[in-house]
Amino acid sequence: MANSDVYKSKTTFYVMACWILAAFGGLMFGYDIGISGGVSAMDDFLIKFFPKVHERKLTAIEDNYCKYDDQLLQLFTSSLYLAALAVPVFLSEIAPVQHRGAVNILFQLFVTIGIFIANLVNYATSMMHPNGWRVSLGLASVPGLILFFGSMILTETPASLVERGKDTEGKAALKRIRGVDDVDSEYEDVKRACEIAKQVKQPFKKLMKRSSRPPLIIAIVMQVFQQFTGINAIMFYAPVLFQTMGFKNDASLLSAVITGIVNVASTFVSIYAVDKVGRRKLLLQACVQMFIAQTSIGAILLVHLKATGTMDKGLAAVVVVLVCVYVMCFAWSWGPLGWLIPSETFPLETRTAGFAFAVSSNMFMTFLIAQAFLSMLCHMRAFIFFFFSAWILAMGIFVVFLLPETKGVPIDSIAERVWKQHPVWKKFMDEDDDQRQMA
Q1: Cis link prior to 130 (omega < 30° from 0)?
Q2: How far apart are CA 399 and CA 228, in angstroms?
Q3: What is the pLDDT along the chain (439 residues), one digit of tens a residue?
Q4: Among 207, 3, 9, which Cα is nearest to 94's?
Q5: Is residue 70 within 8 Å of 167, Cβ to Cβ?
Q6: What's the 3-state SS for 249-271?
Q7: Rounded to the nearest 5 degrees, what angle is found at the Cα of 283, between the Cα atoms of 279 and 289?
Q8: CA distance 382 to 246
Q9: What is residue 1's three-state secondary structure?
Q10: How many domains does the chain have?
Q11: CA atoms of 41 and 374, how far apart (whole Å)
Q12: DSSP E strands: which ranges in 288-328?
């Protein structure tokens, strides 16, 4: 394999346009995440579709933690996240190795921008009676249209073209996305990887082999952990959560806007740091910060938010700050890296199949958390934050012992330079077994 240092690239307008247009899939996903929680808190929406929930919401003696406990309401929210994404794979394949982390995080950045825009829209439309919720949901078509028309000018990835025997077009595409003519070294590596991939007739079967387990396990576990940080529970239901603490409708939506701003701003930290600091350090630092924030929120709610009544305004403001601290560290770590790491750890021959597992796992876990959160909040009350804290502790242990560092390693060198060097995963990388699979 050629060393990544000899890969030449230059950032051109076309290259940046490809990155941004592809990342619009993230904006569409983020808008759906942000819009559903705000719409679910709007009285007009609840009156039309969930009158019983609205009735409970207005009942002064109703349990604070159970106002929104309704399976149909949760199904409305969770059903928006069953659509799959392939965007991170595309970004990983077109990004130069030295900027792969930052480019791939564009997806997560656009997710956070989508959430922020959704929060702003919800804040504005909450005062548009009785059809504000219709405007909020209808505007979801805008990023979809941009992605649709933008896809018409996006180039196919060089690996995709070479895999289909279009070598000339593949090299031309590589020149376009690198912005230079001297791409021979990288092109030869792409061709070599494609030749290996062609020998694998059944990628899903290959994915089940022993030597493919390390990236598959990492990919699936990263998606499970990303959701069990509790981030989507907070982002889906930020307005609902803040109302539970005693904020009025407009104030709760404004608080959601604040967390959205923090989410976007913090993602820029990851874009800057991921290829300098590395993946593992960002993840471990975030585990510590998220654990402290979640346990603190849980402790405050446990002591000060009872079944009826509201919290002291000062304490409620502290909770909002803690939520922002939590969102901040997620946005520069498990949010973007949960997508980046699976997209760069699979070899070419199983990359599409492997990432399909990762995406499916993420969508399923997102659906599960969205479907269960309000019921969990009702039954577990403040202890739900300790539940997520326990998962964060498990995540930190996982990173320490099982997650290798992939910073600066070319995708097609991952097996040799990562898996075969790792004290645990190298036991799965049996070269003779690989050769028998290729035969």
Answers
A1: yes
A2: 15
A3: 444 445 777 777 877 887 787 778 788 878 877 787 778 778 888 888 878 777 776 664 556 666 555 555 555 555 555 544 576 667 767 777 666 667 777 777 888 888 889 888 988 888 888 888 899 888 888 887 887 887 777 778 888 888 888 888 988 988 888 888 888 888 888 888 788 777 766 777 888 888 888 999 999 999 899 989 988 667 666 666 677 666 776 776 777 778 888 888 998 888 888 888 999 999 999 999 999 999 998 898 888 877 776 777 788 788 888 888 999 999 999 988 988 888 788 877 787 778 778 877 887 887 787 778 778 878 888 898 899 999 999 999 999 999 999 888 887 778 888 888 899 998 888 654 545 444 4
A4: 9
A5: no
A6: HHHHHHHHHHHHHHHHHHHHHHH
A7: 150
A8: 15
A9: coil
A10: 1
A11: 12
A12: none
Q: Which two tokens stand for residue 215?
A: 């990236």
Kind plus residue range of the DSSP H or E element containing 246: none
- DSSP structural state of residue 343: H
Where in the sequence is the domain holding 94, given as residue range(s)? 4-438
What is the CB neighbour count within 10 angstroms for residue 347?
22
- Largest Cα separation within the chain, whole Å, is 72
Residue linked to tokens 């995708």: 411
Long-range interactions of 43-51: CB distance < 8 A, separation 24+:
43/249, 44/129, 44/130, 44/131, 44/132, 44/133, 45/133, 47/130, 48/130, 48/133, 49/76
| CATH number assigned to the domain comprising residue 429 | 1.20.1250.20
Match 């990236």 to its residue by tokens: 215
CA distance 269 to 215: 26
Residues found in the chain: 439
The helix/strand count (H/E) of the chain reads as 23, 0
Measured in Å, how far apart are the chain's first and last C-alpha atoms? 22
DSSP 347: -
In this prediction the pTM is: 0.71
Residues near 373 by beta carbon (within 8 Å), at least 6 away in sequence: 74, 233, 236, 237, 384
Tokens 């505007």 correspond to 139
